[in-house]
Amino acid sequence: MHASTMVLLVSAVAASPAWADGEWEVLISTADTSVPGVPDAVWVPNSFNNPTISSTGAVSFRGQIGGAEITLANSRLILRGTPGNWEIVARDGSPVPGDLIPGYVFNQTSGLNGLASSNNLSADGGVLASGFVNGPDVTSGTDTAALIVYPDGTAGLLGREGDPYPGGGGSVMSSSMSLGSGVRMSDGGRCLISTNLSGGDVSGSTNNSALVVLSPSGVTPIFRKGDPAPGFTDGTTLNPDAFGLYLKGTEYLLFGGTLVGGEVTPETDKAVFTTVDAKPGELRMLCREGSAVPGMPGVNYRSGASFGFPVQPLNSCGIYFLAELEGDGVVPNVNDRAVFFTAAGFQEMLLRRGDPVPGVPADEAVFYTMNSTGWTTVWNGGGYIAYQGLLQSPDGSDLAAGSFVACRTRDGVVHTICRNGEPVPGVDGATFGNLNGSTSICISQSGVVVFQNYVVTSGGSVQHLFAWDEVDGLRVIAAAGDTNFTGTPANQLTLIGATGQNGDGGGTGLSPSGVLVIRAGDSVNQIYSIARIQLGEPLIECPGDFGGDGVVDGADLAILLGAWGACPPKGGCEADLNLDGEVDGADLAILLGNWGPCVPSFLNYCG
What we know:
single chain, mainly beta, Type 1 dockerin domain, six-stranded mixed β-sheet, globular
């Protein structure tokens, strides 16, 4: 939806909300001297990495432990589960899960820290475990590996450094398989990565890298540096980028790269390719510098500029990207940047530099861009887009007219959630500080937006966490100084933001149903915890329809009764509808309350 058709609707705290947030619950804390699964061990202070949460409510994080029998060779581990129901997914010094590489353990050859911390989960709670491995005949060319540990505890090997490149030519994948936070794992346990190649037919730098998809069923080649660019017949080749790689499910890919040869110039060499709307097994060019913008006669994507993508630009709704413009009617710094959505053969401009922002007088300021680096945006398959943007003066002369947070809901309406300098609801005398680039914004499938800001008070800047939705409006959900996380005033509240990943839905520590997990700490007293809260109304597409046939009936009841009792420590269980770690009467009541045909939901609605 273009800004000219946006409805002016500025959020405020709802007077009589129909929804209500839950209470914060501490899941695990360094104040507790016990470590699940490791007798006599204790948590090392400030060692919890930011947690991630799956659709089933399973929480995963990496931590470090100490104790009499603990050394740097076995101190790091990844946990998954819920309170009282934790399991160790992988641990330094322990066999690679599933004994997938017999005789090997997670560790560097020096015997020290091996496990990476990529914070990747699939929707059902499968954990990406990767890092250094050590074992018989290990070399620097074979010492990293990646695997997925499924909710039932079994594991699948995704890839190992030194494995043959499956595209032919006899070369091997010579890049580390210790996958960092820039890697995205889909619900099927698939990762699109760039790998260097060595040996075989590698010829200098002309063909020494490739894009591949790692999966438990094997490595699939996608594109090799120096191969003919898709859609070109004039000798033009493509060097794909090593970063900004995205995938969804088993068939949709998105990546950028640099065109070389043919009639390519430095002003027209950046392009983006995808499998979306392409023929099976093929790639198509989505956009290119200097090429025409669909639906905008006389306007091109600006030559010499690149394209921007949000945290997860590819999902069940299509592709979402940012581009700079040139051509008819385009004025630099006034209307030369736009955000586009493309799917099913069409492309729509959602927002353009110079557009009015709901709640901001148009003669005072207009939209400039998505933060100073170009991109702090998340969206989901429910059709919601949350973003942090910047404002400018209408004529483009002042590029420092403020920052704001907004949400485009699935009905196409844009809500301005807050703007720097505005009063903070519920906090006397406080105003929002600069929102640019520091919000760690995330959004649930039901449209709950979560972000952080250092608000300005008479005593200085104080960190706050906020939530917003269409029903409850904007509210504070936590603040520095709160004592409910550590028993003492917490001075660290961390949202995982863009570095977390919970499957095809996006990169976030917020589950699709609105359960938020954070890391909180008191650095003065060295107490740290991981906590969760339910925000807004829990959203499950069809509670109790375990068979996925659109009806809650006797077959689903049998599944629930068969799972009665505490969930096994494998990342939660399907029949635990209220995500409390146990299948009991409360879950039975939810199922019976939804008996019969499912009510259509908007989980895959794209607007």
